[in-house]
Amino acid sequence: MEYRTFNKTGEKISLFGFGTMRMPVHEDGSLNHEESVRMIRHAIDNGCNYVDTAYMYHKGESEVAVGEALKGPYRDKVFLADKMPVWLAKDEEQMKKIFFEQLGRLKTDHIDFYLVHNITVPIWARAKRFNLMDFLLKQQKEGRIKHIGFSFHDEVDFFCQVLEEFPWDFCQIQFNYMDTHFQAGLKGLMKAASINIPVIVMEPLKGGKLADKVPTGIMKKFEESEVKRTPASWALRWVANFPEVLTILNGVHSFNQLEENLATLSDARENALTEEEKNLITDVANKYRKMEVYPCTGCKYCLPCTVKLDIPTIIDLYNQYHLYEKSEKIQADYNQWFGEKRRASMCTACGQCEEQCPQHLPIIEIMKKASEVFDK
Ligand SMILES: NC(=O)c1ccc[n+]([C@@H]2O[C@H](COP(=O)([O-])OP(=O)(O)OC[C@H]3O[C@@H](n4cnc5c(N)ncnc54)[C@H](OP(=O)(O)O)[C@@H]3O)[C@@H](O)[C@H]2O)c1
């Protein structure tokens, strides 16, 4: 296993981090505890020493399974990460209750890496309103939290602002070869590194889209390479190549995926990819981008929409739906992100967005098509 140094303490953290958001489930969708515990322990037995969970993963069952897996000698072998879902707390008191509930579910007296979960503009404002950082600092002082960080899902400029607003020990961003200019992206990674804030990477396979059901044209590019690797291995190695990355969280739902990713991240090293290999990934990323149906650059000139639609994201999901051969994952993302009032079908065809779009995209037509696909 490759290990990287956590600058605050000098401790070594495995490049394979276990992300517990996508563990195996039964047919009815409930978590398969037995298999999940077996997988977490297998990862630890094979060198993984970082396990990431969250209050809402698997409807709370992820924390319970992690607690079960870390019983006995396993707890001291890992750095345990968990997160505060500020948006689920109706007030400060409830937020505090969630924290102690987490310790109970995890059957531990401390959490090593504790994150403000999923920071966006409104969530950060809510965290401040609930005095979350004071609460976390108190828990740190009393030994229930070792290190304080945040996970992030908003624009890069806001990411840079959040980095400066608290003496963070670490942060967590979505990063993969398709998301270099999405959310924090490459610029965010470099900014955090420049001020010595270690970066943990989530969604290295774009939630699996870069690993399973790879479009045929893309697969051909990989097959042309002299070096033979699976798409998942290419994508993980691309992230591992950045020395700025402390650990990579792997969501795995089967033993096969676990074994493959453990092997990849035992072998991957920083700055190990050759120019040829990096060029291959750039080619693949460009090919993916060319396959997009509508070349939206995400500039957001179309916003604000008069009925508050998140136009760039709807276009992105519509593109992805075609790119990934009508993947159910995209429909699930759409359902998760857009409530009743923010769906493409709410477009009133006022046309204000089209006047502003530098790419001259037919946004009204796209909203109609997206609605036909997603709002059935
Ligand atoms: N803090 C936050 O806001 C936040 C947000 C997202 C994630 N996270 C954390 O980050 C972790 C990683 O994110 P992620 O789960 O989205 O990671 P990911 O690696 O981008 O996607 C995981 C999915 O990739 C597929 N996969 C994994 N290994 C594979 C392999 N070797 N071959 C083929 N397919 C493979 C599986 O998809 P299938 O299930 O379709 O097979 C798996 O469910 C999460 O588990 C969670 O702990 C945190």
Helical content class: 40-55%
> Helix tally?
15
Beta-strand residue fraction: 5-15%
N/C terminus separation: 46 Å
The helix/strand series, from N terminus to C terminus, equals EEEHEHEHEHHEHEHEHHEHHHHHH
Bound molecules: NADP nicotinamide-adenine-dinucleotide phosphate
CATH superfamily of the largest domain: NADP-dependent oxidoreductase domain
Rounded to an integer in angstroms, the radius of gyration calculated over CA atoms is 21 Å
How many structural domains can be distinguished in the coordinates? 2
* Average pLDDT figure: 93
Coarse structural class: alpha/beta
Could you tell me the CATH topology label of the largest domain. Answer: TIM Barrel
Q: How many beta strands in the DSSP annotation?
A: 10
Trace the largest sheet across and list its strands: 3-4-5-6-7-8-9-10
Multimeric status of the protein? single chain
CATH classification class of the largest domain: Alpha Beta
Return the CATH architecture of the largest domain: Alpha-Beta Barrel
Characterize the biggest β-sheet.
Answer: 8 strands, parallel, barrel
Shape: globular
Which residues form runs of ≥5 with pLDDT under 50?
none
Brief write-up:
This protein has 376 residues and is an alpha/beta fold.
Protein model, in words:
It is a single chain. With 376 residues, the chain is of the alpha/beta class. The protein folds into two domains: 280 residues, NADP-dependent oxidoreductase domain (TIM Barrel), CATH 3.20.20; 64 residues, no CATH class. The strands form two sheets. Strands 3-4-5-6-7-8-9-10 form an eight-stranded parallel β-barrel, surrounded by seven helices. It has a two-stranded antiparallel sheet with strand order 1-2. The longest helix has 16 residues. It starts with a strand and ends with a helix. NADP nicotinamide-adenine-dinucleotide phosphate binds next to strand 6, strand 10 and helix 10.
